[in-house]
Amino acid sequence: MPFKAWFQCIGECEDRYPLNEVIYNCPKCGNLLEVRHDMEVLKTRSAYAWMKLFDERFMRTEWPYGSSVWGKKEVVCPHVANENIVSMYEGGSNLFLAERLGKQIGVEDLWVKQCGNSHTGSFKDLGMTVLVSMVNQMRAEGKQITAVACASTGDTSAALAAYCAAAGIQAVVFLPKNKVSIPQLIQPLSNNAITLSIDTDFDGCMKLVKEVCAKNNIYLANSMNSLRIEGQKTVSIEIVQQFDWEAPDWVIIPGGNLGNLSALGKGLLLMEELGIIRRRPRIACAQAANANPLFLSFMKGFKEFTPKKAKKTLASAIQIGNPVSYQKAINALKEFDGVVEQATEEELSNAAALADTTGLFCCPHTGVALSALSKLVGKGIIKSHEKVVVISTAHGLKFTDFKLKYHTGKLHGVKPRHANIPVEVTANYGRVRDAIYRELDRRAK
Description:
Structural class: alpha/beta
Distance between the termini: 66 Å
Low-confidence stretches: none
CATH topology of the domain at 95-120 and 229-407: Rossmann fold
Strand content: 5-15%
């Protein structure tokens, strides 16, 4: 039986559009679109059969199903021919049992989903494999697509550049000048993307890339393109799969442009409808206090949403004041009895550093999520016995400058509680031994 999917308005408009059509918004009302699947066809296979199929494919070598995204092809994007799929065998990132960190925060069963352990070092790979594969499919069908473009604060541009390079498609990335880390900047440069450094912030880049794509034969790759969401939703399926098909009590996720939050909810709702899970976890979205429009809306009961000018934050990937996917995110939070919390620059920095002392190596955005977790535990919203998963969105190696400045006390307005700097000592046995024991004594106090 053929599996079917299409674009449809997130509102009440009922028109359907094929996935190989270049369209991002509903032509009738202007709302974002989402990918919808023929659930009646999907339900012809039992929940047990879906779980068995996904488990049989997980991290194996049969193309393309060893990818944790394409191993779920039928519920993600069934219309791409296998020969047109562009995959780095993304997904399959580990769940880190953060036992020591959990004890310090007050959570007995804390896990960190290491999405940064991916081809380009962030969760963006999960969505980009689907989008670039569909572009590859459309080009194979004869559609004239000159290039694929995105606005980015770093991770999206890295993923787009890598997947386009693998497919032989030109990528164009719009980056806010001096607001992207060097490791993030070097990724699209290395993968031969046309890299534009623009004297504006992310929201300004987003406005420009939308105009360029609308007026030219260039395909838009930001998360307002719901093909990305289809790949990113697999992180929720993967988490449940790694817990032997049991949902956790809470999932905490950093929020910037908010596509990843909506994707998380979409994957969970899909599993519920297919009978794979029988209870819903709650979702918490974590925002930097300097870029917190969703938090401010949450504090007003989501009665209104007002974009704001994002201030500079160390969590640069979520320095977004006018998120494209805010309505999808609000819908997801309402579905999952969700909450929104925020973290200051000092809170997110110290949360990331504390996690690092327990074996993690966190990006600042994961620091936002961990700080939010700590606050929600303190408020009694998250209980100590509940199973909690924190989504770590990117690898810490992308943010070495942030970490070095933290440990050397050079982050403005941040008092580092877990700073650790090298101990300079002369090449003498006695001096080295004394330095070691001084440090052991200091750290024991």
